[in-house]
Amino acid sequence: xxxxxxxxxxxxxxxxxxxxxxxxxxxxxxxxxxxxxxxxxxxxxxxxxxxxxxxxxxxxxxxxxxxxxxxxxxxxxxxxxxxxxxxxxxxxxxxxxxxxxxxxxxxxxxxxxxxxxxxxx
Amino acid sequence: xxxxxxxxxxxxxxxxxxxxxxxxxxxxxxxxxxxxxxxxxxxxxxxxxxxxxxxxxxxxxxxxxxxxxxxxxxxxxxxxxxxxxxxxxxxxxxxxxxxxxxxxxxxxxxxxxxxxxxxxxxxxxxxxxxxxxxxxxxxxxxxxxxxxxxxxxxxxxxxxx
Lengths: 121, 161
Description:
By secondary structure, chain A is α+β, with helices and mostly antiparallel strands. Chain A is built from 2 helices and 7 strands, in the order αβββββαββ.
């Protein structure tokens, strides 16, 4: 598992809003939720596939991986999590990320953000 | 990509420089089409890799995989290289399902791009299968190399020597 990805997951899982007793954590799962949390917002982070590799001395010296962060929220503004997630991505992926998808699900009333990121492994 | 211009007089230089934008646009468009073809082929191949399971209603917060019917719609839908846009400085195109039209799924008519987006990015009740992103990211280097090779192969069309 790439070190950059591990630190990103740790940072995303540690995301919080407010301070002290009013601290509200964002439920964040890796890969998939076994049972979706009954909260206003929740997230998913996943490392998906190998994008490219740099070879030297007949071995793979450096590999880049792509993954995604999903945020589902009942609030149009993502309950304040959007800027926190983008700031975390900027810090841990050295800016190699983009907002890939943003949509509204009529069936569930959830807003969905999907960011794609690349990390070095 | 550097090219050397040889001329014997101002008249010849002016003639060659006048001709350059038109030839450059033609060569760029032809090379871009070849490069876009590499990405479009990667998308066609990636569609076959979508994992499916028979349709079931996602219950208890669990997410389902795309159904075989949804995969069939995506693989049979019109997709490929879009019409080129030339704004004078750049030539752009896109690859995807923009004009794929509509499809009927379980008695409901839906735009194909919506089904593609749901499979590619996932929903709160369907697992994502990022086949488009995977095809784009993995074919990027090959597409750039193809475009560069296309321009180099057409260097004689510039008639700059």
